[in-house]
C-alpha cells in the first residue's frame, strides 16, 4: 500500500472544520480568558454581557496587544529558541518520513525544561521579575499571540512554497488547505533549528508549565497562601509536562511531528491554544480557590499520577517495542506482533512492527483513556461550581476520538490487509469492550 498523505479527511468535513476553526478559535480564546478572569468563571455572565452589548461589547473586551505583552512573548520565545539551539543533547533520528527522509534532532528538551523553570522561579524568588505581571497582562498576551501566530503561519505557508526544507512538502492546490494543514512536514531554519520542535515543544508545552507556575504564584501573592486545590492542579500539570519533556524524543515519533504538517492546525494550536485552553483549569483556580482537605486532595493527586503514569507507560511500551524490533518483554512476556509491510511514496517497500499485546492489545488507542482521565483529575480540584474549567477535558475527548479515527484511516491506507488483521485481533478503537 502507498503511504497516505499526512492527513486523511473527507473533503466536505475538512473544508467545514477548517473554516469554522479558523474563524471561531481566536474569539473563543479571548472569551475563555474574559470569562475566567473577569466574569467569575461563569459562562452565563459572559453570555448575559454579550446579549446586552452585542458585537460592540465583544470588541470592547477584546484586549489589544500591548508593548509589555509583546516583550514578554519575545523574551520567552528568544530564550527558548536559544536553549533549543545551544544546549547540548544526544542526536536522535526521527521516523522515516513518507518521502523516505529521516530527520535528525538534538534531544535537549529536559535540560531546557529545567533551566526554564529554575530561571522563572529564580527571577521571582530574587525579586527580578514577578510572574503576576504575566497573569495581569494575560488578555493582551493572548491577543498578541493570536495575531502573531497567524502571521507566523502565513510565513510558514510562504516558506513552504518558496524554500521548503525537504522533499516532505508540497501543495494540495488549495490555498486554504495548504494554510490550514501546512505545506512542510519538517520545516527548518538552517539545518538545525526545527520549527515544529520549537512551536510544539519549546513554546507550546513549555508555556503550559510556565503558566501553571504563574497561576500558582498569582494565587499566593493575591491570598497570601496557595489552596490545596491549586497545589494539586499545578503539580499534576507539571508532572504531565515533565513526563512530556522526559519523553520528548519519543514525541518526535508521534502523529503531531511525523504525520501532521506545519500549518495553522498544529502551529497555531501549539502557540495559542495550548497556552490558553490547556492551562485554563489553573487560570480558573487563581480566583476560585477551593479547600479540598488533605484526604480528598491526596486522593485526586494520586489518581491523577496513576493516569499520567499509565499514559506514559503506553507510549513507552510502543516505542521500546519498535526500538528493540520486538525483542523486549511486554508485561513480562514476549510481545505478540504483526509484521506489516508498506510502500513509501518513493516506491520503496518497508516493514513496520505492530504490537498486539500489552496496552496495545486492550484497544488500538487505549493510551487516550488515561490521557483524558489525567486531564479530568487536574480539573476536578475546582469542583463543579462552573462548567468552563471542564472545557479542556471535553475538547481533549473530542480531539482524541477524532484523532483515533484519523490515525486508523491513515494506518488502514498505509498497511492495508495488515491493519485489518490488527483490527480483527484488537477490535476496539479506544475503550476496551465499548468503542
Ligand atoms: P502515537 O503516535 O503514539 O500512535 C500512533 C502511531 O503509532 C500510528 O500512526 C502508527 O504509526 C503507530 N502504531 C499504531 N498502532 C501501533 C501498534 N499496535 N504498535 C506499534 N505502533 C503502532 O499516537 P499519538 O500521537 O496520538 O499520541 C502520542 C501521545 O501524545 C499519547 O500519549 C497521547 O495521549 C498524547 N496526545 C496528547 C494530546 C493533547 O492534546 N494533550 C493530543 C494528542 C496526543 P506508524 O506509521 O509508525 O506505524
Structure report:
With about 425 residues, the protein is mostly helical. The chain folds into 2 domains: about 290 residues, no CATH class; about 140 residues, no CATH class. The protein has a two-stranded antiparallel ribbon with strand order 1-2. A two-stranded antiparallel ribbon has the order 3-4. The chain has a two-stranded antiparallel ribbon with strand order 5-6. Helix 8 packs antiparallel against helix 9. The protein is globular and about 60 Å long. It starts with 10 loop residues before the first helix and ends in a 10-residue tail after the last helix. The site of NADPH dihydro-nicotinamide-adenine-dinucleotide phosphate has 21 residues, from helix 11, helix 14, strand 6, helix 16 and helix 17.
Q: What characterizes the major β-sheet?
A: 2 strands, antiparallel
Termini separation comes to 27 Å
- Uncertain segments are 1-8
Strands, count: 6
SSE run: HHHEEHHHHEEHHHHHHHEEHHHH
Q: Indicate the structural class.
A: mainly alpha
Average pLDDT? 93
Shape, principal axes of CA atoms: globular
Helical amount: 55-70%
Question: Treating each run of at least 4 consecutive H or I residues as one helix, how many helices?
Answer: 18
Strand order of the largest sheet: 1-2
